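Weekly structure sync, notes
Attendees: PL (lead), two postdocs, one rotation student
Agenda item 3: pending single-chain targets
PL asked that the sequence for the first pending target be pasted directly into the notes so everyone works from the same version. It is reproduced below exactly as submitted, 89 residues in total.
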Amino acid sequence: MDSLTTAARLEWWVNSSTCLAAFLVAVTIVVDEQGWQAAGQLTRAEEGPDLAALCELDKAFELCLPDDSTMVVMVTALTPTGSFTLTEA
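Predicted structure, written out during the meeting:
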């Protein structure tokens, strides 16, 4: 089992050329024989309502990692304190 804990950025794109919002987050990604699982926390918990509002429109976000790799993820199980889980889109 491999894991990675890192700072990252969640981006919410309106279309292919317009990023409406970006949130700094801390994520832990665990990879095992079944696939991967991830959990995260907003760096600024006060942005929780903004993230929740966007999730109501569409839970799909782009997760941008420090090595410039990206992946489309679904933000789920968002709590009032700004923690969440990520699933594969």
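Discussion points:
- The chain is about 10% helix and 60% strand.
- The beta strands are 2-15, 18-32, 35-42, 60-64, 70-76, 83-88.
Action: rotation student to compare against the earlier draft before next sync.
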